[in-house]
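Example 3.2
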Amino acid sequence: MNKRVIVSIAYICFSTFIMWLVYTFTHDLLGCFATLLLILVFYGIINSTFIESKKEKIIYDMPESEIIKRVKENDENFSKENFYIFVKNIIHFFYDARMGENLDKIKSLVSESFYTYLNNMILTDKSNGLDRIIVDLEIKGVVLKNYYVKDDYEFIEVLTDYRYNDFTLKQATQEINDVGKYRFVKYIYTFSRKIGNHNKLISYKNNCPGCGANNCNFVMGVCVRCGYMVGNYGDFILESIVGVKDE
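Structure, written as tokens:
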């Protein structure tokens, strides 16, 4: 059972006990009602304070404005809006690759260790005779979470919130298994790049560098003809994806 539900039940029991005591010694219904109001006000203050502090702890290690300021110290062309487009594209590219599709197109966008991890998951599915199907990806939002520097590399953590339908299909019997829960889940995507790399100004006036297609084929910074990423991404690569426990 959820901890907050347990705490709420305990608080209701405690409140009922206090009201019973008040009525037992005073036989005053108005006093009981006043006591209930005080308990509810106190509970509301404590609960709202807990929620805000918990939200701050889970979502933000550093304010977005501070993260942007630190990135811009090394790259004045950094754009939060364009970076968000990049992150959303990465999410789509990752799940395409997770199904074994377009794995080569994500290779230059992730670290070597992450690519090995992703490739091993795909090989495991194939060795078990499974096709993994991921559909209905819906991104609720992304937000900058943290920024730090380590060994001449800068790292940006991004909190993402999205859902998707996930299941496996047995190749031999066409039986569907391992159906996931279609609900929104938070993940932390960590990106890195060497300090000194800069974002290039995004341009939708030119043809696709990958296949030469007209810019009308650009959707969310990606050429739909060949999958080439067109945008202001500054050589960021994906280092890891970590799920955030739903409290």
